[in-house]
User: Which sequence fits this backbone?
């Protein structure tokens, strides 16, 4: 019977430890945005796509 009390006590300490680690991770911003960085490489850069250079080397907006 004393083994059960020991296991319950240890499991409560482990659960509290995981909860504290989770709270620290959330406060540090680890879970803020996990979708955008993974697909950022799939999007084209709109600024460089819409600009061209004329013969004088000046940037000019391209008509799309």
Assistant:
């Amino acid at each position: 019977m004393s083994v059960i009390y020991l296991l319950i006590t240890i499991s409560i300490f482990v659960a509290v430890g995981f909860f504290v680690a989770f709270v620290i991770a959330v406060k540090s911003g680890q879970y803020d945005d996990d979708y955008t960085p993974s697909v950022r490489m799939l999007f084209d850069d709109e600024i460089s796509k819409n600009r061209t250079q004329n013969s004088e080397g000046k940037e000019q907006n391209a008509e799309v």
Residues 24 and 30 are 9 Å apart (CA to CA). Helices lie at 2-27, 36-39, 46-50. The mean pLDDT is 79. The beta strands are 51-53, 59-61.
